[in-house]
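User: My advisor asked me to double-check a structure prediction for site-specific DNA-methyltransferase (adenine-specific) before group meeting. I don't want to rely on an old file, so could you generate it fresh from this sequence?
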Amino acid sequence: MQKIKKQNNKNKFGQYFTPRNVADFMIDLANVDRSARILEPSCGEGVFLDLLQSRGYENVTAYEIDASLANQFDCVHYESFVSAKINEKFDLIIGNPPYIRWKNLEDDLKEELMRNGIWSFYFNSLCDYLYIFILKSVQLLSDEGQLVFICPEYWINTAHSASLRNYMTQHGFFEEIYHFNETPVFEGVASSIIVFKFIKGVKKSNFINVVKFQNRKKLDKEMLSCIRQRKDVAGVDYLSVPHFRFGERWMLQNTQTQVELRRLERACQKVKDSLFHDAENHAFDSIGDVCDIGNGMVSGLDKAFQITEEKLNEIENVAALNVVKAKDLEAFFTRKITKYIMIHEGLSEDVFREKYPNFYKHLLPYKENLKDRYQYNREINYWEWVFLRNFKLFSRPEKRIFVPCKERISNKNYFRFALADEDIYPTQDVTAIFRKPEVRESIEYILAYLNQSVVFEWLRCNGVNKGNIVEFSERPIASIPFRRIDWANESEVALHDSITALVVNFLATEDKCILMKINHLFDRLLEVDDVCELQKIG
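Assistant: Sure, here is a fresh prediction for site-specific DNA-methyltransferase (adenine-specific) from the sequence you gave:
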């Protein structure tokens, strides 16, 4: 993909060009005749143009912002596709559009977007440069015209791309999507990649053909041919996914999985709490409604602040911080506590050496490296942490839930939400979750809920995912649907109290039979009628 990012003038655009075998595969997805009007919005070195030309397509138009590229083709307009005045419609638009976050765009590209009517109407500075390439391309398609693009997958479920997704559901449908996950399609690019075929007009079937490629091997022509023909290949899944709907998340999941996740959301609806609830909106309670969430503190050099065998004086023992690292978390349990040096009194170095002699001796070998840490626009003493974010939250005298801030799920079907005592703190590889003061549901109930398999599935499909890595920063955790208790319902209160007592027992005994009882009680709480969801999704 033609990834544009801030760089020096030697490589202002930082392009990543489509491999020839992948471009060939994409052209195979299109079914247009040789007289078709074809557009390539960001042609780069011209791999699509060369292949189209070799196949006998002559009515081809291309745009490229970098005038040093694709000079051997007469069809290239050297101007920005974003601002180009294009007055014709196309039967096929194909290519590899640029993508980049707003904050990393060159100033002239930002100014161009701010002057652009499409961008101003549909997007904002939280959106990606990619979005306008997709939306404008849909606008330029003729009736039943085809759009075949290769790009990152993140836009199909992020909040900031909702306007783009809604536009696409209103103006056409997806026929095929190939999800390459962590497969190294582009050298040096770690993003999870998709190839999609979108058709403008009224859909002719109820499902999208989706191919999920879980194999991390490099794509070759033979493999691409196999998945195109839907042959049995290790690590490749073939799905029929219900068409995406206006105003809803897009999920590359089969009907059964979608029903299960909608069931969870319906079980968490805010029906009990809102006089103005509109059932059609399916608004649900979330973890963000009941919990305060904070990403862990940043030392800037963890190994320097970790203390293991040092003898400490009384003041140092009080100052030492109890920390649990991500690697020491399990589902429900924190397994190992690591002591960290923590000084934030604003001392001079002489006072620090005198008051904390063992800390001083320990940190001295790391002094130069500590001085080289990122300073967050202020002067930081080498014995201090660089960023005590959420320290006030973490100092609350109550139990908290920890989860690794990133979790690879390639070979497992669970997350590691763990209960920690009140004097345990997280560093930057852990995110902490605290029950809000007014919330009646117990921390044990919340812990058990987060470790439910249906929550794992919901996050796998709807979380912030990069390939097989799920991210647990504040926003994705806050978005998780949460099953609150109707405290006027004696049956629900009894279920809550039973779950809480079982979790306390499990934490004390680690008897895994207790988990089965907990899961059974949550099954009862999450029961809803699936018939309407099956009708809507199917």
